[in-house]
Amino acid sequence: MADIAQTRVAAAPPPSPGRRWSERDVPLALQIGAWIGFVILLLPVVIVVLAGLNSGDYLTFPPEGLSFRWVVDFLTSETWMGAYLFSLLLALITMAISTALGTMAAIVLARYQFPGRDLVRAYFLSPLILPGVVLGLALYVFFVTTNLGLARSLAGLVIGHVLVTCPYVIGTVSAALVSFDQSLEEAARSLGARPWTAFRRITLPNISAGMMAGAIFAFIVSFGQFDVSLFLSTPDLTPLPIALYISLRYTFEPTAAAAGIFAILLVVVSMLLTARLVNMQKFGGIKFS
User: Fold this and answer.
1) Do 244 and 79 meet the contact criterion of CB atoms below 8 Å apart?
2) N or C terminus of the chain: which is more exposed, having fewer CB within 10 Å?
3) What's the CA gap between 100 and 266, in Å, rounded?
């Protein structure tokens, strides 16, 4: 009997800790809840798209008919296209600066032990907790009272957007550094590689997924940032969210919804680009079936 038991144990397949999860492993109630949440999140997007394709003269839903009239009006309007392109440029500048600063901050916070490290981490991540209106007002008052020439300027607007988006880069890069084996970089250093060479060839490729994810998040958050832009923008430097706010406050034309279509399209393209470039399984240890 003992020999038979040993034979059965030997023939049993070994446990697989990295087994892929399938849809059958998820409870039905959780699946229904996920679908309900998905519909709730997607419904406003559908409403905006249909309102932007409205053939009527006012922003109404359901639309009176489907037409590309207001889409063409958005594409041919200097005001709307100027705001859209300015938001795009501002988001690209913010993304570049936030990725560089956030990566450096994440490396320092993840690798070095120093007094007050937790306080410094909380300081960097505080823009995620503070309301955007409070942060925008505080920046505006600081720029005005210090007389640095940053109030109502492009530099001040970039600084405000970087403060809001940098925590996202710090979070994603920190997550990538957790799964990175620092002994690989130390081995490269022991073989004669300079610190910058070891970082560029060993560390950087391993945390690139977190950097790209943080960069995309920074771009999306900056493009749709309203609170900070409300206090720091000018008539000559009007991002798209502020142009939407002005239009909905005074004119209420479907052009605002048409502008929302292109904003949604840009976010969708950014997310598809993230899914294409970022290996989520390597980045977060997530396995997809």
Assistant:
1) no
2) N
3) 23
pLDDT at 289 over 70: no
Find the largest Cα–Cα distance for the chain: 89
Nearest to 171 by CA among 213, 225, 223: 213
Helix (H, G, I), strand (E, B) or coil at 234: strand
If you ran DSSP here, which 8-state letter would residue 15 be given? Answer: P
Is there a domain that residue 168 lies in?
yes
For 257, the domain range is 77-284
C-alpha dihedral over 250, 252, 254, 260, to 10 degrees? 70
User: What DSSP state is assigned to residue 25?
Assistant: G
- Residue 88: inside a domain: yes
Q: At what angle do helices 28-52 and 255-277 cross, to 10 degrees?
A: 140
Q: How far is Cα 127 from Cα 139, in angstroms, rounded to an integer?
A: 12
255 inside domain:
yes
In angstroms, the CA 130 to CA 240 distance is 23
- Cα 166 → chain centroid: 10
CATH code at position 145: 1.10.3720.10
CA distance 89 to 142: 25
Report the number of distinct structural domains present in the chain.
1
Residue 83 resides in a domain: yes
Report DSSP letters for 75-132, one per residue: HH-HHHHHHHHHHHHHHHHHHHHHHHHHHHHHHHHHH---TTHHHHHHHHHGGGTS-H
Section 4-14 average pLDDT: 46
pLDDT classification of 166: cutoffs 50, 70, 90? very high
Q: What pLDDT score was predicted for residue 43? A: 86
